[in-house]
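User: Sequence recovery, please. Input:
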């Protein structure tokens, strides 16, 4: 599991120094911190991410650096076990953690009491972030598909394999060229594709590398919540709320059109375990806001923050009845259906005609597609 966070800052007078570590028992050699720093500043020293393996500390470190030209050159270092890779948690989640951490750090003022309070808030946030990362190891199939979609790397892999099968080395080379970044662990990157059945890894006789074949495809969009719409037509939870809910849903879907921006927004809700728990809960029925079941360790304030965010993203709708009771409805469901990629059969034929695909690859892919279709 993730070990914790170490935040360092570069200043001209002190050099590289540790600003905060969580948990406090987490310690690391300054030489190792300098190794991470040098990995960032090699070249232009620009803002960005690196993954560094520290043998002495027995850690992989997913590090984000604000850049030498930033007002405060800060590194946010997520300390992982040697076998772990940040890709297993998803780019969007790691990016959000880094951005939120930096927001806290920028709020620190000259007042000692103010800084003390912000540090405590940051430590509490990092504690919850570690818990979140641990939960991300056990995603459902639809969450893993959403994880693929929220990742630029994941969307690019899908786009490339929608054209033709490739070896892992070929895919890695294409990704590095198209994304202008080093792909350090292609196996971890491909893990959600394999676990959801989107791709199949297999050997072609005579080849030295595993080949990747697309067997399924998926899309993502909003849809009316079938169970709640059905209940509302039966005047549930009561005629007043049912009428308002149906009207709001009808008005929304009259003009709704899926887009990359909106799809990314709803996919991020799906991969957040807490928000996903609420989505699955609200798929079955509406709740008065004061009767929403609380998870272990959840506070009323935390639930309020989740609901506020989901309302802003138009995932839920808050409706007040004539008695003044505020109800929570799942306003738009997030559906991620998979489908058989029939389009790729014609691409296989065309690539064979053009000589861009070896006969062995074409036959293997068609065999795997036939097997998947029968299932």
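Assistant: Recovered sequence (375 residues):
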């Amino acid at each position: 599991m993730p070990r914790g966070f170490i935040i360092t800052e570069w200043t001209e007078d002190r050099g590289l120094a540790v600003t905060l570590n969580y948990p406090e028992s987490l310690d690391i050699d300054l030489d190792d911190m300098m190794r991470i720093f040098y990995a960032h500043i090699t070249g232009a020293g620009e803002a960005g991410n690196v993954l560094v393996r520290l043998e002495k500390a027995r850690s992989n470190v997913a590090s984000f650096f604000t850049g030498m030209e930033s007002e405060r050159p800060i590194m946010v270092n997520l300390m992982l076990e040697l076998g772990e890779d940040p890709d297993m948690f998803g780019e969007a989640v790691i990016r959000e953690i880094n951005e939120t951490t930096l927001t806290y750090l920028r709020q620190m003022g000259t007042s000692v009491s103010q800084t003390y309070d912000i540090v405590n808030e940051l430590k509490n946030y990092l504690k919850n972030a570690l818990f979140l990362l641990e939960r991300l190891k056990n995603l459902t199939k639809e969450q893993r598909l959403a994880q693929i979609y929220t990742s630029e790397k994941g969307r690019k892999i899908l786009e490339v394999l929608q054209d033709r099968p490739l070896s892992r080395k070929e895919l890695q080379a294409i990704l590095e060229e198209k994304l202008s970044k080093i792909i350090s662990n292609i196996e971890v990157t491909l893990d959600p594709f394999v676990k959801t059945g989107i791709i199949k890894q297999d050997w072609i006789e005579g080849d030295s590398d595993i080949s990747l074949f697309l067997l399924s495809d998926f899309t993502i969009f909003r849809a009316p919540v079938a169970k709640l719409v059905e209940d509302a037509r039966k005047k549930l939870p009561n005629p007043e709320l049912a009428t308002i809910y149906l009207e709001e849903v009808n008005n929304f879907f009259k003009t709704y059109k899926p887009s990359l921006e909106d799809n990314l927004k709803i996919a991020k809700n799906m991969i957040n375990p807490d928000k996903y728990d609420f989505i699955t809960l609200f798929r079955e029925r509406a709740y008065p806001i004061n009767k929403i079941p609380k998870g272990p360790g959840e506070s009323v304030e935390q639930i309020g923050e989740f609901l506020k965010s989901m309302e802003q993203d138009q995932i839920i709708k808050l409706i007040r009845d004539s008695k003044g009771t505020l109800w929570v409805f799942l306003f738009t469901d997030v559906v991620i259906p998979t489908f058989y990629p029939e389009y790729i059969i014609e691409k296989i034929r065309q690539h064979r005609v053009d000589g861009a695909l070896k006969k062995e690859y074409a036959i293997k892919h068609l065999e795997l597609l036939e097997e998947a279709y029968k299932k």
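The chain has three domains: 4-135, 141-219+338-374, 221-335.
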